[in-house]
Write a structure and sequence with these properties.
The chain is of the alpha/beta class and 194 residues long. The protein has helices at 14-23, 28-36, 72-81, 86-107, 122-137, 167-172; strands at 3-6, 43-51, 54-62, 70-71, 115-116, 142-145, 148-149, 154-157, 160-163, 178-179. The chain has a domain at 14-138. The chain has 6 helices and 10 strands. The strands form 5 sheets. Strands 1-6 form a two-stranded parallel sheet. Strands 2-3 form a two-stranded antiparallel ribbon. A hairpin with a 2-residue loop joins β2 (43-51) and β3 (54-62). α4 crosses α5. The longest helix is centred in the middle third of the chain and has 22 residues, at 86-107. The relative contact order is 0.22.
Length: 194
């Protein structure tokens, strides 16, 4: 059985996950072709970067910013209409359903009425679908993760200044090992770190 283990000592985000999986051997060209089939109009690239003396891969999603607020059914249709393998599609949809359930609880709305602001943006859709597809390309059967560093302080979001972790992230991490250490900033989020 092939297992992927993420060491989230400094948080985790969608673009970081995709980059790590490319570093682990997921073929970038195949991944990009699958992401193109989402029909977002985004362009993808990878580059080698060095942070604090350590080299790694950075996954980039370039797109024209949109003011579209997507609902869960729209995102699910985008994923279902793509050429991604069925397993990657199913996992990406499950991720968005979990995000939708958390946002619905935070806002006191039915899940189908939830507007996906930051996580409904093109880069977040590509990050989440990309991570699911990269895991599929690597043949990963189980995903494990260390305790997750959420960061602390506040962050500016669509709804204004929010605590870190944001309420939806806190709900997603409920009953999971997490901690807050380091700079007062958001270290864990489902959307990209831009």
């Amino acid at each position: 059985m092939k297992i992927a283990h993420f060491d989230a000592f400094s948080g985790i985000a969608g673009d970081m996950t995709v980059a790590a999986l490319i570093d682990a051997g997921a073929p970038a060209g195949t991944l990009f072709a699958g992401l193109d089939s989402l029909a977002t109009g985004a362009h993808f690239s990878v580059e080698r970067v060095t942070r604090h003396g350590i080299s790694g891969t950075k996954f980039n999603v370039e797109f024209e910013h949109q003011h579209t607020h997507r609902h869960l059914p729209h995102i699910v249709k985008m994923i279902e209409a793509s050429a991604l393998p069925e397993g990657a599609k199913a996992n990406a949809i499950r991720v968005f359903e979990a995000l939708g359930a958390a946002e619905a609880q935070v806002h006191g709305l039915p899940v189908e009425k939830v507007h996906f602001h930051e996580v409904g943006a093109v880069d977040s859709i590509c990050d989440i679908a990309g991570a699911c597809y990269a895991l599929d390309l690597l043949g990963v059967e189980q995903v494990h993760c260390s305790p997750i560093n959420t960061g602390s302080g506040t962050v500016e979001a669509h709804h204004g200044v929010m605590p870190v972790p944001t309420p939806a992230t806190a709900l997603l991490l409920k009953d999971k090992p997490a901690f807050a250490r380091g700079p007062e900033t958001e270290l864990t989020r489902p959307r990209a770190r831009r």
